[in-house]
Write a structure and sequence with these properties.
Strand content: 5-15%
Number of strands: 14
Radius of gyration: 43 Å
Helix content: 40-55%
Structural class: mainly alpha
Strand order of the largest sheet: 1-2
Shape: elongated
Number of helices: 46
Largest sheet: 2 strands, antiparallel
Length: 1088
């Protein structure tokens, strides 16, 4: 080759130094050889070459090789083309002229079209050439010891190159999976592991660091991700305590497991993160042969394992190298972990990612490194941090780069960090921020270790990340505080929030000076204004929030510190993500805590992450989770925070009468006068005011005495006789009410009137007149009160009656107050209304507000007051739980086409019949109840029974509204995801420590439910759950044949759960022939 040709060759265009080009030319023949080599082979040609140089060089060689091949193909196709003479037309076509075929006589049999499969330029030919070239390279003595193509792809030699292989469309993932599975299967068979599943091998392997691969977890995630759901959502769906914001402590026994599963990590991934350190307490700056542990607590089983159980060859298992010294070389470390040099710098927070301290917060005296910010976890929080040091030769040229200050324990930490960052799809510094914030909030004395609470934090982050687009920095601030450090050219989070815009002439500085809630100087006011402007809150909101922060942090004085400013940031930033104002969020937290301040302190005070299990206490994570869930629930059902607080929280001050209350009592008093029982009422009933009585004198003589009849005194238990000592009360004539119904009141009244008539020897016809008069007055007075309250509450009269019962009000007491106020209002226009009545009116207004918002019926309220336990309530007072239950009741009605009466009748029947039923009857009741619910929900009976047995394993029936709520929840999630109830429950019962068999079984059930092109609406019951089979022996009969013994019919009867029904009477009948006997009982196998 001439000098000019060498100068223009692709090899000379690689853009490397002359010495390196000469070395490459001596090793490789062309850029095609370089492009065909793996990265490791290219690095082996020049020990001075760094991986950051090798990668661009290899890419450039591939581009030049592709360009050269393209030019070759284009030249080969165009230079060989010969145009034949055009065919003549017209007169010239009648003359035989020269043609290409006539002149050159080509051998068409040995030619083919350019795009034919047998063409030398076809893809098949290119593939064959590549295959032959690979075999040629393997024959090179320098390639001895390498893994050959036949070992890597034994299927290639047997591949038939035909039109099917060329044109068949096959997903790359399918091909890769088949190739890898075949290779792994071959390896296992060669090592006497024929019974080992390929999935188990991928599950146990940890290198490359994309492993372990948990197929079952990927299948579960695929099924749920299709509908933007997670495994944690399924666990919460089947948890009777969900949603947790209505529970004490805002959590349940299963809430923490659900948050762990929200991470999307499989059990092996969680186990890898949670396992005990391989090299604890070996944080020395240099690598040394640290003592290895002899036992470890298995994070899944929680059992102690000795050294024979787990692998001690940490570096071989996790990094693919037996010698940890080799990992100190940055090039080798990048090769083994798949990182680029830039990603390694980011992992260690060195070079362009070196941390910096904010000039407006923290100490500036000492420089900081990755152990302080950016790479805290991988360094274990211990300085000096891991760094990269250049190794130089005698001339000062860089030979290699080496990791320094790196111990065995830090290799363990980097192993976990690299994997976790890939699983979360986040940069290393953001993952470090999440881990360090969570671990700091856990307040444990142990070193920086990932715990189950850390996974809970990641689960909450993943959930808020998906639903509210929360950022890593903001979530870390919720757990710990604002970061006052940055990395590289990026400002610290504190400066980005408060000092990125020139809002004020001076930046906000955290100098630990006193923060006055009410500023006393212009300088203090400017700093407060700066805080309010950056956080987007008003001065009044600031003052209210500052008092809560001071109370939550138990501080006599607030100071301009990271802790205090972070509390302000949490109380403004989190509500903004949730679509609330700061005041609304604080009010809602108080509501969730039944008027307390414990939940507020979890955000306003020092954050704390801890698992409380059955305790009613709460931590910061549960508080954040409950607040987010409650906000979503309020939005879904069109509640506002103010509406809910007015309905549930008690009034801070005593109620004060307004014009509305006075107008109500005055209007009722005007109508009440004609409804009172007076002396005239008794006169109209022809009730005598006196009676002539015959008495015996002292001498035995008869004396006649005219005795006055005091009807009010005789009927004092039923009619208010008035207070003679306080005439102004003016309540005489009111019918007394003690909560009894009309029927019982009339019976008691009738008995009393009968006794009076007998005592005074009055005519019997007076009995009916008196009873009717009093009952009529009772009804008029009740109607008068209800109509007035109905106008006041803006509800119907029927609803007012039930609301009064719900509120525990007494209409007699209210009418008595009407009489008192109306009797004194002339002399004292400002006469106060009694506190009891005002409190009752306030309660009625709250109940009416809830009733109107949810469109509750009088029938429901009556049922609620009579049987609160059916609604999962211990009492009927208006609480958060009560409002939630009633809201879900309306939601349940909205998903069904059946009427409200059918739902209430179901609860009435199942609760009244179940307690007195025998065991045999309970089976019939259970199946009947499941059938009714299946019709109500348009769902299958088997689905209903599956959920019912999950709720009540011993009974299998749904008896309360909260259980019905869970049933509807499961039905809707099944409809959304396309799963059946059995598959959904199998997923929901998975925990981080469940056996692998349960995970595999649950994933298989979930995949088996997936169908394409079918609607997800759950199908109703159309008889598919019925289990009754009749078998016939001797199915052919001949009429009038004496020798024919007849046919035997056997009925097998099973319930909806495939259990045989014993001792069930079967009545046989037919219109053809005769059946004997007509009645039979099923045996223990359900056969008759």
């Amino acid at each position: 080759m001439s000098m000019s040709e060498k100068k223009n060759s692709p090899m000379s265009q690689l853009g490397v130094s002359a010495s390196r080009q000469q070395l490459l030319s001596e090793t490789f023949d062309s850029v095609f050889d370089i492009a065909a080599q793996p990265l490791a082979r290219l690095l082996a040609t020049d020990p001075k070459m760094h991986i950051s140089e090798a990668r661009p060089l290899l890419q450039q060689a591939k581009v030049l090789a592709a360009h050269s091949a393209r030019q070759f193909r284009e030249q080969r196709l165009t230079t060989s083309i010969r145009n034949a003479y055009p065919s003549e037309t017209g007169v010239k076509g009648l003359i035989d002229g020269p043609t290409y075929t006539g002149m050159f006589d080509p051998d068409w049999a040995t030619h083919c079209p350019p795009d034919a499969i047998e063409a030398t330029t076809s893809p098949i030919a290119y593939l064959a050439d590549l295959y032959r070239e690979a075999l040629t390279i393997e024959d090179n003595p320098l390639a001895q010891g390498n893994i050959t193509l036949a070992q890597r792809r034994p299927d290639l030699a047997e591949l038939i190159l035909d039109h099917t292989a060329l044109n068949q469309v096959e997903p790359t993932l399918v091909l890769v999976n088949d190739i890898l599975e075949t290779s792994i299967r071959t390896y296992l068979d060669e090592h006497n592991r024929e019974e080992t599943l390929v999935d188990d091998v991928l599950l146990q392997a940890r290198y490359p660091q994309t492993l372990p691969y948990e197929r079952y977890q990927q299948q579960i995630n695929y099924v749920l991700d299709r509908k933007q759901r997670s495994l944690g959502d399924v666990i919460r769906c089947i948890d009777p305590a969900y949603p947790y914001f209505k529970e004490p402590g805002a959590h349940s026994l299963h809430s923490d497991e659900a948050l762990q599963q929200d991470t999307g990590f499989g059990p092996e991934q969680q186990s890898l993160l949670l396992e005990a350190p391989y090299y604890p307490d070996t944080g020395s700056p240099a690598v040394r042969n640290a003592p290895r542990p002899t036992y470890r607590i298995n994070p899944r089983s929680r059992l102690i394992e000795d050294e024979s159980t787990f692998s001690l060859d940490f570096f071989k298992t996790n990094y693919g190298l037996e010698d940890p010294e080799k990992l100190l070389d940055s090039k080798t470390f990048c090769l083994q972990t798949g990182l680029s040099s830039d990603e390694l710098d980011s992992l260690l927070s060195v070079g362009p990612y070196a941390p910096t301290q904010s000039p407006n917060a923290g100490s500036q005296r000492e420089p900081i490194d990755g152990a302080v910010f950016g790479s805290v976890y991988v360094n274990g929080g211990q300085s000096p941090a891991i760094a990269i040091e250049a190794q130089l030769d005698d001339q000062g040229n860089t030979l290699s780069h080496k990791l320094i200050n790196c111990s065995y324990d830090q290799f363990d930490r980097m192993n976990r960090m690299i994997r976790l960052a890939r699983w979360l799809d986040l940069p290393f510094d953001q993952v470090d921020r999440l881990l360090t914030a969570s671990i700091a909030a856990e307040q444990k004395s142990t070193p920086l270790l990932i715990t189950a609470d850390t996974l809970r934090s990641l689960g909450v982050f993943q959930r808020l990340r998906a639903t509210h687009k929360i950022t890593v920095d903001d979530f870390a601030t919720l757990l710990n505080g604002l970061a006052t450090q940055g990395r590289g050219k990026e400002m610290s989070q504190f400066d980005r929030v408060f000092n990125s815009q020139a809002l004020f002439p001076q930046p906000l500085v955290l100098d630990n000076s006193e923060l006055s809630i009410t500023p006393n100087t212009d300088a203090e006011r400017q700093k407060v204004d700066h805080l309010c402007a950056a956080l987007g809150m008003t001065y009044e909101t600031y003052r209210f929030t500052a008092k809560l922060v001071q109370q939550a942090q138990n501080a006599e004085l607030l100071r301009w510190s990271t802790t205090v400013v972070s509390a302000f940031y949490r109380l403004t930033r989190l509500p903004r993500y949730l679509g609330l104002s700061t005041i609304e969020a604080l009010a809602l937290l108080e509501l969730l805590d039944n008027g307390g301040s414990k939940l507020v302190s979890k955000l306003a005070g020092r954050t704390h992450i801890i698992t409380y299990q059955t305790s009613a206490n709460s931590d910061t994570l549960s508080t954040i989770h409950a607040l987010a869930d409650c906000t979503s629930w309020l939005s879904e059902y069109k509640w506002t925070v103010s509406m809910l607080c007015r309905a549930v929280l008690p009034a801070l001050t005593s109620p004060v009468a307004t014009d509305s209350e006075y107008n109500l009592l005055h209007s009722m008093s005007l109508r009440l006068q004609s409804a009172l029982i007076t002396d005239s009422s008794f006169a109209e009933a022809n009730a005598p005011t006196s009676v002539l009585l015959i008495k015996q004198g002292e001498n035995g003589q008869q004396l006649y005495e005219n005795e006055t009849i005091d009807w009010f005194g005789l009927l004092y238990e039923y009619i208010d006789a008035g207070d003679n000592s306080n005439p102004a009360s003016n309540s005489k004539g009111l019918v007394i009410y003690h909560g009894e119904d009309e029927e019982s009141f009339e019976v008691q009244l009738s008995d009393t009137v009968t006794s009076i008539i007998d005592t005074f020897n009055l005519p019997d016809e007076l009995h009916s007149r008196l009873v009717n008069m009093i009952m009529r007055a009772r009804g008029v007075q009740e109607t008068l009160l209800l109509e007035g309250l109905a106008d006041y509450l803006t509800v119907s009269t029927d609803l007012t009656k039930t609301l009064l019962i719900w509120a525990g009000g007494n209409r007699y007491d209210m009418l008595k107050e009407v009489c008192r106020v109306s009797a004194n209002i002339i002399e004292r226009p400002d006469v106060p209304i009694g506190d009891d009545v005002l409190s009752m009116l306030s309660t009625l207004a709250k109940l009416a507000g809830v009733t109107n918002h949810l469109s509750l019926s009088p029938t429901l309220i009556t049922q609620l007051c009579e049987r609160p336990l059916w609604f999962g309530l211990s009492d009927t007072r208006l609480s958060l739980r009560c409002v939630y239950i009633l809201t879900q009741y309306t939601q349940i009605l909205s998903v069904s086409e059946q009427s409200e009466d059918q739902l209430l009748n179901y609860f009435r029947l199942i609760n009244n019949a179940w307690t007195e039923a025998t065991e045999s009857d309970k089976v019939l009741i259970r199946d009947s109840a499941a059938n009714k619910l299946a019709i109500f929900l348009q769902w299958g009976v088997r689905e209903v029974l599956t959920v019912a047995f999950h709720l009540n394993p011993d009974e299998g029936v749904v008896r309360t509204l909260p259980e019905m709520d869970l049933m509807v929840r499961v039905c809707q999630l099944c409809q959304q995801t396309g799963l059946d109830a059995k598959a959904l429950l199998a997923l929901g019962n998975l925990t981080p420590t469940s056996p692998l068999e349960e995970y595999r079984g649950a994933s298989e059930q979930a995949l088996s439910c997936l169908t394409d092109g079918l609607p997800n609406k759950p199908g109703g019951e159309v008889g598919q759950s019925q289990k009754g089979v009749i078998t016939v022996i001797n199915s052919y009969l001949i009429a009038n044949n004496p020798s024919d013994q007849g046919a035997t019919l056997t009925l097998t009867l099973q319930d909806f759960m495939d259990q045989p029904r014993e001792d069930i009477t079967i009545r046989w009948s037919t219109d053809i022939g005769v059946l004997e006997p007509e009645l039979s009982l099923t045996d223990r196998l359900g056969q008759a």
